[in-house]
Amino acid sequence: MSGTVMLTGKWLVLARHERAAGWLQVWTDLGRAPRTIDAYARGLAEYLVMCDREGIDPLTANRAHVAAYVREVTERPSRRGVNVVSLDSGSGLANATIQQRLVPVRLFYDFLMEEGLRESNPVGRGRYTLGRQRGGQQRGLVPRLTKLPWIPTDAQWMDILEAAKDEPIRNRVMLALAYDAALRREELCSLRTDDLDPAHRTLRVRAETTKNRLERVVPYSASTGVLLSGYFAYRATISRARGPLFLSESRRNHAQPLSLWTSSKVVRRLALAAGVPRFSTHTTRHLCLTDLARMGWELHAIATFAGHRHTDSTLQYIHLSGRDLADKLSRGMNHIHAWRIAKLADLDAATAGTSR
Question: What's the pLDDT tens digit per position in 129-170?
């Protein structure tokens, strides 16, 4: 059964819209990752459901119709309810989630334009536009919020490590590798035994497991190497076969590859046990890249380590905490600030003398 047939079975509305199914088949044939195809299918299906409910023909929908969909997803409460850690959209869905819902709708209309079925895309996109007065940035339908990634303080990280002491060795190795190599969750769970080179303490992140299909080789620390040695001995009690590095130990999926869902559950349990609820599967990546910046690594070196095609992506991950900025301010600008404050103090003293 092809991926598209499976998706149209999952999202029945896609089967009712021939052009939508055809668009998904194109992306499938182009070799897009299954998770990407699934996300596209979900986003487009939600839009088509609204069109069906409101009696809108998606092939002729205009910007007002798309705006109605934006309003719907903006006001939609999150299914996670009280489990939502933080919100940035003022509603139940994060701004990034709303942006993700719009991507497949925009790409679908791009496809219809290429097929000659439409003359314009009602979704549009933020882009530099020379035709506007003085040029400038044309905004998309939903303003994009760019937030600095959150990283734990040193005290919070120690709390996480303390909580991790009670975890099985597999979970401790996953935490160590996730930080050491700045791995995404998918990259970590997709590691295979032959991806590691213990002699040189490096691991290979295969292109097919990465977000942008860029293969890279990254190092891990000696401490992580010690943990890995212990885990390999333990893993042999579950399976001696080569293959996925991290295996499930549940009765239902014993010795099967560890799922992304199980990995997320482990991290969530750690976060709650440590009293650091904002800690997530991506936090270790944020923290590693920020630490590399603190150590003085050049931007391009960090981008290579992270597997980014462009340094613009790296800049979204790298930031210095307020404490780091305060330390720099204290060391490098102390005399300037002292001079300025001294002048203010002199002015205050002069004013006090006059008042007497």
Answer: 334 444 444 455 666 656 677 889 889 999 999 999 999 999
Same domain, 26 and 119: yes
pLDDT in tens, 82-121: 444 444 444 556 777 778 888 899 999 999 999 999 999 9
Mark whether 59 and 25 lie in a shared domain: yes
Predicted TM-score (pTM) of the model is 0.68
* pLDDT value for 243: 95
pLDDT category at 187 given cuts 50, 70, 90 is very high
Domain-located, residue 138: no
Instruction: Give the count of domains, the chain.
Output: 3
For residues 40 and 35, give the distance between their C-alpha atoms in angstroms, rounded to a whole number.
9
* Residue 296 forms part of a structural domain: yes
User: pLDDT for 27-64, tens place per residue?
Assistant: 888 887 787 888 899 899 999 999 999 999 999 999 89
Angle at 203 between CA 175 and CA 250, to 5 degrees: 45
Helix (H) or strand (E) holding 23: helix 18-29
User: 203 has which bridge partners?
Assistant: 196, 218
Residue 247 pairs in a beta bridge with: 257
CB burial readout 34-54, b (16+ within 10 A) else e: eeebbbbbbbbbbbbebbeee
Token pair in block for residue 124: 């549009």
Beta strand ranges found along 129-223 (DSSP E): 137-138, 196-197, 202-205, 216-219
Q: Are residues 113 and 169 in the same domain?
A: no
Note down the domain range covering 92.
3-126
Question: Cβ-count burial of 205 within 10 angstroms (0-12 exposed, 13-18 middle, 19+ buried)?
Answer: buried
Can you say whether the dihedral through the CA atoms of 218, 299, 314, 278 is positive or negative? positive
Structure-token pair, residue 236: 């042999």
106 vs 61: CA distance, rounded Å? 12
Q: Is the dihedral of CA 52, 58, 64, 67 positive or negative?
A: positive
